[in-house]
Amino acid sequence: MKEYYLNIFKYDFWANMKLIQSLKEQNINDESLLRLLSHMVIAELVWINRIKNLNYGGLKIWDLLSLEECEKIAKEVNAGYLEYIGGLFEDDFNGMMTYKNTKGIEFENTIRETLIHVAFHSTYHRGQIAKEVRKLNKEPVLTDYIAFVREV
Q1: Which of 8, 24, 99, 138 could make an S-S bridge to 50, C-beta 3.0–4.6 Å?
Q2: Residues spanned by the domain of 109
Q3: Is 33 helix (H, G, I), strand (E, B) or coil?
Q4: Rounded Cα gap, residues 71 and 99, in angstroms
């Protein structure tokens, strides 16, 4: 199970970096698109800190960041996920975590459920970003999992 989750978060990082690089290369600096990207990387930051039971430093889930800030957070957060997952034992994935959402409501989920949520959440928003890129008459980058598998 550990290898599965490590692979998922290696893919997530690959896709995030492909997306950010593509936005840089096409000189795309659209606010609604950046807000989605910002939300995606901030959410990954929030969740890794929830998992580790740490404070995530005051960023709001829909704050607007620059492309460079998004890239910096994405790199730091991915390193955190890989380190965290790498330190888990197989039984740890079924361990429970308690956290509060952004409205202060308390929930409890397994580590496994939470990791899958984070990966799917990012994939969902990368799809939204691809749609926004098309609206700007630009070409979205391919971030499908199969493209990752073919490349690595």
Answers
A1: 99
A2: 2-151
A3: helix
A4: 26
Instruction: State how far the alpha carbon of 6 is from the alpha carbons of 1, 24, 30, 34, 115, in Å.
Output: 9, 27, 32, 27, 10
How crowded is the C-beta side of 60, counted as CA atoms within 13 Å? Answer: 5
**What backbone torsions phi and psi does residue 63 show, to the nearest 5 degrees?**
-60, 150
Q: At what angle do helices 31-51 and 111-135 cross, to 10 degrees?
A: 170
Q: Is the pTM of this model over 0.90?
A: yes
Residue 101: left if φ>0, alpha if ψ -120 to 50, beta else—which one? beta
| Residues, the chain | 152
Q: How far apart are CA 135 and CA 74, in angstroms?
A: 25
3-state secondary structure of 69: helix
Grouped pLDDT means (10 residues each) for the chain, 152 residues: 96 98 96 96 96 84 96 97 97 95 92 97 97 96 96 90
- Evaluate whether 65 touches 42 at the Cβ level (below 8 Å): yes
Give the DSSP H or E segment for 98: strand 96-100
Q: Are 38 and 70 in contact (CB under 8 A)?
A: yes
Q: What CATH number does residue 115 fall under?
A: 1.20.120.450
